[in-house]
Amino acid sequence: DTALRSLGFSSFTLPKPTVKGGTARYESIPLDPQGLNEIKSLTIEYGWLRALLKRKPSSITINGLSLTGESGPFGKNLSVPGWPLKHFPLSYTDFPAARLRIENASLSFLTPEMGGISIQYDLQASPKGGNIVFEGHLKSAQRQLSYEAALSGYVDKTGQWRSRLEILESKLELPYAKASRMSGSITLSGSPTDQLRFMSDVQAGGLSLMGTPWHSAAATVEGTLESFNIYVGAKSTGIEGLEIALNIHGPGPKIDVSGSLYAQQLSALFDYLEAQNRLLVDRAALYTFDPLKDVNIEFRAQEGEWIYYIKNAENFIDIKGKIKKDKSGNISGDFTSSPISINAGKGQDTFQDGRMTLSGTFSRTPDQTAGLIKADLRNFKAKAGFLPAENINGQILIDDPETLSSSKNETLSCRLPLKRTIEQNCTLETTLNSATPKIKALNAAFFGGQFEASGDEKKQLISLKSLKLESLLKALDLKAISGQGTLDGSALITNSNGKPIIEHARLFNNGPGTIKLAYNETMGFLQGDPFEVETMKLALENYHYDLLDITLKGPVDGPLDITLNTKGRNPDILNAHPVALNIHTQVTLEQILSPLLPMAEKKPAP
Asked: pTM score, two decimals?
């Protein structure tokens, strides 16, 4: 009776023992009135001499101790019928024998988090050096939690106790977390006046969080049943180089969860999520962001939502958003960003060297992904076909968040890389396909006319309408020549083995006009016998043309074949007799356009 009460049992019924020599043996001892808990056998070895001297028994062996109960959240308020556990079950002052053995024991109880837990254990304890020292072995085998551990510890005279569990092998399987090949240690301590405290360091060979695999996981758990912290760190299983860290604080109505996810390069995170079927958008839609490096994603659970921050110091990324999942598994969220520097990308017409600000909302059900995202672009560069554009600004509305695409064309402002003194009004007709802007057309107004170019990078069509010859000659800085009239034109540029070729380009007059070229500034491009050259020089001093037709053909980065055909007259000579010019020469596009480019972009002519 004294032995069982010293271990905390209060409602047992002792049957008649079997006494033989210095041994008393009790069989089938019920520990509560309902018969839920029992001891199969209790053996007390005391010896006649110890009995005569009224010493404690030399040993007590409890075999087949079976306890069943339930607990509150996270193991708090463990309740076992017949065992009103108010303090550590071993006491120095009430220790019942010189040695205590508990063999083939089990403790089974229900928990709100993990359902039923069953622990099999063996324990032996004895006084030593003013303490009760104990050691034992624990084992639990079930679907959600299985482990095997060695136990050791002590209880001192004041009731303070400390124990250590060496986890030999363990496995955890919860709906949101799974771990395998776990090992480590758990230290527990307490006293009659203080609550249980614990601290553990555990390593896991394999870890799954929300269905995503990790390895080389390490976890630290510390605190009490009233307040504890769990720290977890792990690395991705592939070559992505991802690192995750979690901080879980509890208990409470809602457990506080926060953490971070680090990626050396953002493309690695996208690849990992795609491989795990956790990417909410098409992988191709994210190529623009692939080169971003040293990206850190911080997140925390707050009032039923996941709040996240995506940061990267090098590119000044700062994105804030939230994600919420309802009981049906539907996902919704929103996000905003500070300007993101985009310095590189894939594709001919990818926008580069600018800053983009994102904001939007999204939702996802088993049937569809919906939402609206606004991308605000500032100071980007791109190519419309073979034509460079800069200072690209404007907004693109993304109405297909799954593919990060837009269904409508957006008009963005831009500039052609011409001298600032050249007035121009430039726009890009753009749509978004898989987060990559696709330029449909470039439109510009300069030299008093209209310039239109398709965005095709393989076969680009260009048209010119109503260019004023006077404005063009002034921009070309040809001081010795002036003119009046309007010009139309067209061009076809194709891609030949990665090099742009002008298949055909033509500039021709739209109505009559004039050209005036100083007599001494013909620059040797007039060819023929001396009389013909002299006649043409005189005619060009005040040339009234009816036909002005210029054609170009050849590689953009090489010599172009240029043909000039004109028909007209000078009313001041030869009785206004018609004079025709037919000139063929070669010149580079750089020589033609150099006067139109900013000084910093000019290159010496070959």
From this structure: 0.68
